[in-house]
Amino acid sequence: MNNTARFLSIAAVAAFASFGAYADEADNSQFALKFETNRTRAEVAAEAAVEARTHSMEPAGSRVATYQSKADRAAVRAAAAEAVRTGQIPSGEIGVL
Questions:
Q1: Predicted model pTM
Q2: Contact 69, 75 (CB under 8 A)
């Protein structure tokens, strides 16, 4: 029984010590990418400039309908204030259902 416990404790220490063998540099150098290319820096810069000029700011797959309002800002604010006064729309915590 004593030999079994000693054997298991030695095996546990050996297994724990073996985890250190997988350590690497702290700067994640194992993930560094290396590229071999035949394009010049000027070609890449020119392509990036064209992409920056022609890039659409609209998210991919998004077609948002735009609406141009003809209403005056002061008229909309007055109508909203009137709706709050008459109780048509709730205001503050009292109107929350």
A1: 0.29
A2: no
